[in-house]
Design brief:
Length: 299
Amino acid sequence: MQIGFIGLGSMGAAMARNLVKASHDVRAWNRSKVAQDNVPGVILVDRAADAFEADAVFTMLSDDPAIREVILDAGLLASAQPGLIHVVTSTISVAFARELELLHQEAGLGYVSAPVLGRPNVAASGQLNILAAGKADAVAAVQPLLAHLSKKVWMLGEDPARANAAKLACNMMIAMAIEAMAEGVVLTESIGLDRADFFELILGALFSGRAYERYSAQITDRSFEPGFKAKLALKDMRLAIEASNEIGRTLPMLEAVRDGLGKAVSAGLGEKDWSIMADMTVRGGSSVAPSEDESEKKH
Ligand code: NAP
């Protein structure tokens, strides 16, 4: 099976490497130059259209506008070979997933929504959780490829937008957990409880689980290298708010974490891990990321 890959950022490069490790031919395109050493075995092509000449194409671009520009505006659907299946693994809006499904259907192409849970190191170890939705035959055709990238593929039905709604809900809930931990620290540190001791308590007694483990450690260490960039997390909170607006609902906690991430990005911290939002809360809204010197001293 000839595979195309579009978008070799933190996540895409790791995923493309795993497809090559699984002995697939992968032709990949990235907007800016990518070092071949970073994607050994991947065939780097000059145009997105070259990567789109395939049986299955993965897209791991950052957001809706990037996919619109690279895939739709460039007319790649019209020139694609019949039967191609396009797997969009980016975190995109529910509305755009619906639009993409329709446009692929009109062009006679398969479309699978397959957003992922897991950070770049998880992608690198082929242990993502993939939320897959689309027509059963299209999902079945790419399922063996998804298996190389993941520890589990969660099948969420034939409506692709379901996978996107689920992914946005997951990120919304992680952001809320990060903010909840930060607010817990605000209350407990003020009376002298060490934050590591507080997190030992809440992890042991109340909230065991990966998100709490990972982000409590980052908040304790003040370690904010991405990971998942705050600017991308802000994008996801905005997309979740759009999805809630579409159904006429307002979600107050979602708006709070959107605002928290917005402040972090406005403060110039958009390239930091999204858990930087917690640091801002703990420090009364005026956080500065720890300097490189400070984090070097720690290690
Ligand atoms: P990233 O490292 O910032 O990579 C973004 C990719 O999109 C790069 O290949 C970038 O190209 C490309 N891109 C952005 N705008 C473009 C444009 N206008 N035209 C062409 N290419 C464009 O981001 P990432 O962390 O890999 O995230 C990618 C997607 O995965 C996002 O939707 C994110 O929400 C989702 N996600 C991320 C994580 C995570 O922990 N990082 C986890 C799950 C899901 P250049 O290299 O040229 O900039």
